[in-house]
Design a protein that fits this description.
Helices cover 12% and strands 35% of the residues. The chain is mainly beta. The protein has a 4-stranded antiparallel sheet with strand order 2-1-6-7, with no helix packed on it. Strands 3, 4, 8 and 10 form a 4-stranded antiparallel sheet that branches. It has one domain (7-124). The chain is globular, with a radius of gyration of 15 Å. The protein has one helix at 7-21, and strands spanning 26-30, 46-51, 64-66, 72-74, 79-80, 83-87, 94-99, 103-105, 109-110, 115-124.
């Protein structure tokens, strides 16, 4: 059976993602491949750790939730970005992960000391 949600329910489900992860989420970008799931160990090659703004996503609209504010930090490693993970503010509890096809950086080729910025990031709901 396939469910069809109202616009209100679809938006509430998306907004619940930010609520569950919490304020000042942490984004880590890696050169290693995306793991099988969030419970798996972090990928190799940590390139950058970004502490996101306290309100880091726009309210859900039209079946999507987009980044809010500036997401940037100075890189701690050198390599080509391949995957990312979003953590609670503790930086250890992984809640969402993906590959670089899910997030657009200003430059996927990262050098230690350069500023890394996320240009676009969107979470979309099913049946949107």
């Amino acid at each position: 059976m396939t469910f069809q949600y109202s616009v209100a329910v679809r938006g509430a489900k998306l907004d619940a993602v930010e609520t569950a992860i919490g304020a000042t989420a942490v984004l880590k970008i890696f050169s290693g491949a995306e793991p099988a799931n969030c419970a798996a160990a972090d990928p190799t090659g940590l390139l950058a750790t970004l502490t996101l703004p306290s309100d880091w996503m726009n309210a859900a609209s039209a079946g999507a939730k987009t980044k809010l504010g500036t997401w940037s930090a100075t890189a701690s490693g050198t390599g080509t970005a391949a995957s990312w993970r979003l953590y609670a503010s503790d930086g250890t509890t992984c809640h969402v992960q993906g590959s670089m096809s899910d997030m657009v950086l200003d430059n996927n080729s990262i050098a230690s000391g350069q500023v890394v910025s996320v240009n676009t990031f969107t979470i979309s709901a099913g049946n949107a």
